[in-house]
Amino acid sequence: MAEGFDFYALTPEEQGQFLDSSPASPPSPDLLNMANPPNRNLLVFSVVSVGLFLSTLVFAIRAIARHCRMKQCKIADVVAALAFVRCSSCISDDEKISPSPIFYVTHTWTLYSFGLKLGWFAHLYNFRFRDLRTLNECFTLNRTFYSFSIWSVKNAILLDWIRLFVPVNKNTFYWLCVTLIVTNSGLYVSTIFTTHFGCTPREKAWEPWRPGSCINTHTADTFAVSFNLFTDLLMLFLPQRVIWKLHARRDWKIGISLIFSLGVLTCLCASGRVYVLATSDYDKGDSIQIGSNVIIWAFGELTAAFLVLCIPWAPKAFAGMPSFGLSTIRQYYSSAVARIRTKSKSSASASTGAGNKLWPTSNSSKTYRRMGDGDVESVVRLHDMACSGSDKPHTTASLPGRGIMATTEISIAASEPRINGEQDYYRQQLWT
């Protein structure tokens, strides 16, 4: 808005005329079309539908693997559910936006609703000033939901990697993951805060004609998306170092590396957001065009992040089912998990000089642990057994409860000595 403009100094008639006017001038008067602004809703609806399908599919695969196959629910699963179950918003008939807690899959209705109400990639000069509140509120809520969801899904990915790559001791990889979790939390919490409290009064963020002041949103947004891209790149290369240090065949390393390289899609989408914001002019640019581009790239990044979170669990979800060409992938993944755990335990034993701490003896209070594909679960407590002997074969009923038992079977054969006088004579002659 122009400096010195006072909306509340206008008469009611002048205020109405101002709100019905366009906030931007069209390049040509022939392009002005406030009744039915041209848009690209078909493109956005197609992208959102594909993203919705992929996110739902891979999240269901992860749920099958974790809850149906492994019968487990860890912190990472709860965080992943928070990323998939979040708040959404709907645009009502009175052009107000009311938040409502519904599933992530229905959150996409926000994008559909905005397209039907205003139009994706429409031009700002085809709208009125009174439409800016609906537009800005929708952008504000969408940015909030994106920040919360990408924050949750990234932390869920890092927690999964900690459980997979750090089975025993807290090594460098562990502390890098913890640092990224803290960094992501600070980034997205600050983004949410500046989104809602960047203007004084807060209503000026939605109604720019109000008196007040706002922070430089272009600088804040560019820094946030650039730092977001930096963390995406770190998460892309973080597991590769562990994978390529495995003592395994090169083709096996390539197969596992590809599974954990889906983050390339996340980095590409994050790069698209950085490019759009870095080349945009908030003051003179078309805010609907800029916002539409940013939201589409953000939606793609979030969908790709769900792929990174859930796809590695696909071999576990489809274990025991007809492979249809997936048996090799399952074999690569299961073997890599076992190799990673073995290498981690060996490294921890060599660094501490006390390998027996990894597998405690029976007089300790530790629990015997069984290792599966990508998981460790408690089985039974160890205890001492008294030695016993029997001349009868063991049966199932005679065995103790679950645990580790060592048995030794000794066979004794008896025979009569063959001794006669001639043999005694020759034995005696040898010593005379």
UniProtKB/TrEMBL annotation:
It is a multi-pass membrane protein. This is Rhodopsin domain-containing protein. The keyword Transmembrane applies. It is found in: Membrane. Residues 89-313 form the Rhodopsin domain. The chain crosses the membrane at residues 42-65, 173-198, 218-238, 258-278, 290-314. It comes from Xylaria multiplex. GO terms for cellular component: membrane. It comes from the Eukaryota. InterPro entries: Rhodopsin_dom_fungi, SAT4-like. Residues 347-370 are annotated as: Disordered. Keywords: Membrane, Transmembrane, Transmembrane helix. The keyword Signal does not apply.
